[in-house]
Design a protein that fits this description.
Number of domains of chain B: 1
Shape of chain B: globular
Radius of gyration of chain A: 31 Å
Order of helices and strands of chain A: HHHH
Mean pLDDT of chain B: 90
Strand content of chain B: 5-15%
CATH topology of chain B: Alpha-Beta Plaits
Largest sheet of chain A: none
Number of helices of chain B: 7
CATH architecture of chain B: 2-Layer Sandwich
Mean pLDDT of chain A: 68
Distance between the termini of chain B: 32 Å
Low-confidence stretches of chain A: 1-5, 32-41
Low-confidence stretches of chain B: none
Helix content of chain A: 55-70%
Number of helices of chain A: 4
Largest interface: A-B, 20 and 36 residues
Number of strands of chain B: 6
Radius of gyration of chain B: 18 Å
Structural class of chain A: mainly alpha
Oligomer: heterodimer
Distance between the termini of chain A: 97 Å
Chain lengths: 70, 198
Amino acid sequence: MTSDTKKGPDRPDESRRTFLRAGLVGATATAVGAGAVATPAQATENDADKKKARYQESAHVKKYYQTNRY
Amino acid sequence: MARMKFLCDADRCIECNACVTACKNEHEVPWGINRRRVVTINDGKPGERSVSMACMHCTDAPCASVCPVSCFYTTADAVVLHSKDLCIGCGYCFYACPFGAPQYPKTGNFGSRGKMDKCTYCAGGPEADNTSAELEKYGRNRLAEGKLPLCAEMCSTKALLAGDGDIIASIYKERVAKRGYGSGAWGWKVAYKETIAI
């Protein structure tokens, strides 16, 4: 019964909603495109990388410690 | 894991301000912002002392505690850094910091300050290491290059120490033990001279 009611003459014409679908597809494509463009430019490190230790006891640093012992 | 620290030997600092100049030049710090400064007490009087001050990269950093947007983070080697992309320039960290480390590029109407800037321990920021984006926002990343902060490396009297906290503490201890007096005098023999047996 319910489906019959939907198929009745009062049922709105779906074709007029196609522009909404088109708009949705367009917006999604834009978002995907923007993401693809943003990825190479994204220079920010992830949480683990930005917190990793960068100090290295290199020859340069050892020399610094040595000169400070005078 | 090494913990990065600054230690200024006040008996050696001669207030030459080379650390301040080096910092400004290395990181292209704009006018009006001083990531490091030399504070002198009793200037021109007997007992004058100078101390080079910047962000002390606190273990439990008060700036991070008060930040409403949580832009601060501490690295595995105990360097306190922040993200200028997240900073809203509210100035809370400036009021919380006991060392006056946070700096702001603007003094505008309605309290507009711009993004906060502070000493990064020459360790850059959240951008990828040694990229132009990192250089522009935070300055050079010397730590990632296997070096230490330039202010300490070029200190002419070796007053400003930087590096692994344990190592620079041992260097300072050696100095104080040799001097046997001074602002950071070490041990009972300094306080009680030769009258006490350890």
